[in-house]
Amino acid sequence: MTLRDYLRVLREQWVVVLLAILICLGLAAAYFFIRPPQYTAKLTMYVSSQGADTTQAAFQGAQLSQDRVASYTELVTSPRVTGDVIAKLGLPETPDELAAKMTATSKLDSVLIDVTVKDPSAQRAAQIVNAVGDVFPTLVGELERPTDPRLDAAVAVRVVKPADPPILPSSAGIAVIGALGLLVGVALGIGCAFLRNALDVSIKSLTQLQEMVGAPNLGIIAHDAGVPKRPLTVHDDPRSPWAEGFRQLRTNLQFVDVDNPRKILLITSSMPGEGKTTTVANLAIAMASAGNRVLLVEADLRRPRIAKLLGLDGSAGLTTVLTGKTRLDHVVQSWAGGAFDILASGPLPPNPSELLGSKHMLGLLQGLRMQYDVVLIDSPPLLPVTDAAALAPITDGAILVCRYKQTTRVQIQSAMRALSAVSAPLLGTVFTMVPGRGLQGYAQYSSAYRMDGDVGRSPSAAKAEQYDGRKTNGHRPPSQPVPGDGLRDAWPSTKLDRHR
Asked: 3-class DSSP state for residue 418?
């Protein structure tokens, strides 16, 4: 992973990092307020040799004292000393519990022993360490007593100064504990973020998608929070960066195979909810705005949404044509005053897969190829049902719609196997719901680069009069059907003649 990948992971998983930091800070604060403050009382003892009358004897005594200090520091916390202290003060602790509160240290080549005792009570800490100063010299005197009672002990231990009760606690303050909690939270949050990223099998980058599919990406559609209320972005806001994404998709499709133009395109996805229907509807608007003769076929015979999305009648359409109940020219509807045509789904059949893969469907598509420049087919997802796989072989190729951070690698692999099993070519992918952070540059550019005809006019007035280079006065809004646009019993013969 590159540095940009690491930063991307942290940006995507910032909630995890923030949550870990807040939890660790909360635990640190709880630890500070729940744990009682600790006070440390310190006592210093001096180890000296006795009976040094000459210089040489004094040197030997000093060397003896240094040799004894290392052993004495271990002896201070021994059960013998702690037991005598407990007996003297009447403490409730056991010798091991008291030893855990005590620490005995000595510097190298020093004859001083520092004894510290930590306790929640300052008075009690001073009492315990002073009791050690009383008990330990007596114990050393007994251990160093010579066999000849007339001789003095070679080494003696004396208290330099009794300990006073400490005034300030020695435990860490809220600032130190908070800083430690923050550091632990940051480290834990970053670790959890990268762990979650490693366990996440969804597609999060264009590089991942291209490596999985092995086909080019034809378009990147940014996430737009207003899509549920305004799904036809190309029509409603044609100058937005989101609308430009569909126009880029239109342009890329023109160069998929220049020598062999693809006219009948199947738009599908791995699973529902990946933006397939919204993508095909906006793509139809974008292609029609470039002067192409476009037919949008609603071949999702299980959950059709195109007719409802465009505000048209879906009671008759593809299924009625395939079953021979009506003619094609009786059910083809136009949208937005003739911008492009729509063939709705019609009544839902009990056998969608067989109907879509039938010879009647093949013959219908062959006839449509002669009448339109582009035929866009909205089909069901590949994995839940086999409808798209049955329809794909009789088209010029499939376009796979994948949703950012929802489509998984396993789903893409399964979709690729479904298309490969029927020898259907995959023309490319469309990456939808991509965070718009990278598109802000275009948004700023497009707002500053208005068309010449817009100078001196308000954006709302320009938008009302401009629809990809054509006047839209008198056209209906996409959510309202035009009278006479629905199902017709008598379609004028010139309707299809103009597409020939």
From this structure: helix
Residue corresponding to tokens 């550091």: 183
Do 271 and 411 form a contact (C-beta atoms < 8 A)? yes
Q: Is 234 within 8 Å of 282 (Cβ atoms)?
A: yes
Mean pLDDT by 10 residues, the chain (500 residues): 81 90 92 84 82 46 62 86 90 90 85 89 91 88 69 74 85 82 93 88 86 90 81 85 88 84 92 92 92 93 91 91 92 88 93 92 93 94 93 94 92 93 93 70 43 41 39 38 34 34
Cβ within 8 Å of residue 135, ≥6 positions away:
81, 84, 85, 88
Q: What is d(CA 51, CA 58) in angstroms, rounded to the nearest whole number?
A: 8
Supply 485's token pair: 């646009």
- 343's CB contacts (< 8 A; 6+ apart) are 295, 296, 297, 298, 317, 318, 321, 328, 331, 332, 333
The pTM is what? 0.61
Single-letter code of the amino acid located at 116: T
DSSP string, 103-145: EEE--TT--EEEEEEEES-HHHHHHHHHHHHHHHHHHHHHHT-
The Cα–Cα gap between 160 and 410 comes to 76
Report yes or no: 270 and 418 within 8 Å, Cβ to Cβ.
no
Q: At what angle do helices 14-34 and 3-12 cross, to 10 degrees?
A: 60
